[in-house]
TrEMBL record:
Residue positions binding NADP(+): G166, R167, S168, I232
Organism: Roseivivax marinus
Protein name listed in UniProt: Bifunctional protein FolD
CDD domains named among the record's database cross-references: NAD_bind_m-THF_DH_Cyclohyd
Keywords tagged on the record: Amino-acid biosynthesis, Histidine biosynthesis, Hydrolase, Methionine biosynthesis, Multifunctional enzyme, NADP, One-carbon metabolism, Oxidoreductase, Purine biosynthesis
Quaternary data: Homodimer.
A GO biological process held by the record: methionine biosynthetic process
Annotated family: Belongs to the tetrahydrofolate dehydrogenase/cyclohydrolase family.
């Protein structure tokens, strides 16, 4: 292996420390405690784990966490009523509705019911538009975490060739917007891309967000490239056990990349750290106070 490992776990811990310091100042100097409301509909096991983790880290950062667990058969009307109530609650600065929602709900309608100022996931259509036009917005947590890791590793990203593998609304597209905002030359590749391997091999920065376990191997990676692996895939590890892997074959890619994020311990921890940071940002904006850097 020749690549440096980008330690997202350690970086996320630093972000959380900075968030906690900002929260302490808000509380001590202004008597304000930022609050994050997380809404979970149904019993999806992975979502339950994420929500528990978000709740724990929110409290550890000194913020208030409001958890709303609703049964899977909750009507969309009732969920929208809860969102309206949270929109109006001055103690709640950030609202997150855990996805995926049950099939009988329209997630676009639900997400767009969240007040854009409290939309700490950055999925509301207003925030998507603001990001796309380079205006101040709420930035989706996972791409924001990737950008922070890239800036930390590379300094200026200006002029670099970036390939984003995947075009989802929650990762691929906002990631591409952020990289464009940092003056990269951006290509978005997806399942219809011709010779996707060659496209990826042209990348100084390769962000893989496809949800295909270990799809990207060393033949896809330009020597010295920085590889950010967003994928979280659980695969069979034999003897009835499972393990988490990314969208990149770590050992193979690490032979040629300059730097690479591991799975777990790369992008994953950054997502919640950025959620906490977004909640503090939303709180500062709501109170007309200086935002964290
Ligand atoms: P989606 O399934 O919404 O999107 C996957 C994208 O990958 C699509 O654009 C699809 O193309 C593209 N794709 C699929 N197969 C191929 C292929 N063979 N070649 C090229 N492109 C392909 O996934 P998400 O964006 O939601 O998530 C991606 C991964 O990131 C998942 O593993 C997920 O678990 C993980 N994730 C991790 C997070 C974290 O905190 N670290 C947060 C969110 C997601 P097309 O549009 O043409 O179908």
């Amino acid at each position: 292996m020749s690549a440096d490992i980008i330690d997202g776990k350690a970086f996320a811990a630093e972000v959380r420390t900075r968030v906690a310091e900002h929260v302490r100042r808000l509380t001590d100097e202004h008597g304000i405690v930022p609050g994050l409301a997380v809404v979970l509909v149904g019993e999806d096991p992975a979502s339950q784990v994420y929500v528990r983790s978000k709740n724990k880290q929110t409290v550890e950062a000194g913020m208030n966490s409001y958890e709303h667990k609703l049964p899977a058969d909750t009507s969309e009307t009732d969920l929208l009523a809860l969102i309206r109530q949270l929109n109006e609650d001055p103690a709640v600065h950030g609202i997150l509705v855990q996805l995926p929602l049950p099939d009988h709900m329209n997630s676009d309608i639900v997400i767009n019911a969240i007040s854009p100022a409290k939309d700490v996931d950055g999925f509301h259509i207003s925030n998507v538009g603001l990001l796309g036009t380079g205006q101040k917005s709420m930035v989706p947590c996972t791409p924001l975490g990737c950008l922070m890791l890239l800036r930390d590793r590379l300094g200026s990203l200006s002029g670099l060739n970036a390939v984003v593998l995947g075009r989802s609304n929650i990762v691929g597209k906002p990631m591409a917007q952020l990289l464009l905002g940092d003056s990269c030359t951006v290509t978005i590749a997806h399942s219809r891309t011709k010779d996707v391997e060659a496209v990826c091999r042209g990348a100084d920065i390769l962000v893989a967000a496809v949800g295909r376990p270990q799809m990207v191997t060393k033949d896809w990676v330009k020597p010295g490239a920085t590889v950010i692996d967003v994928g979280i895939n659980r695969i069979d590890a034999g003897e009835g056990k499972t393990r988490l892997v990314g969208d990149c074959d770590f050992d193979s890619c690490a032979e040629v990349a300059g730097a690479i994020t591991p799975v777990p311990g790369g992008v994953g921890p950054m997502t919640i750290a950025c959620l906490l940071a977004n909640t503090v940002t939303a709180c500062c904006r709501a109170n007309g106070l200086a935002e964290p850097d």
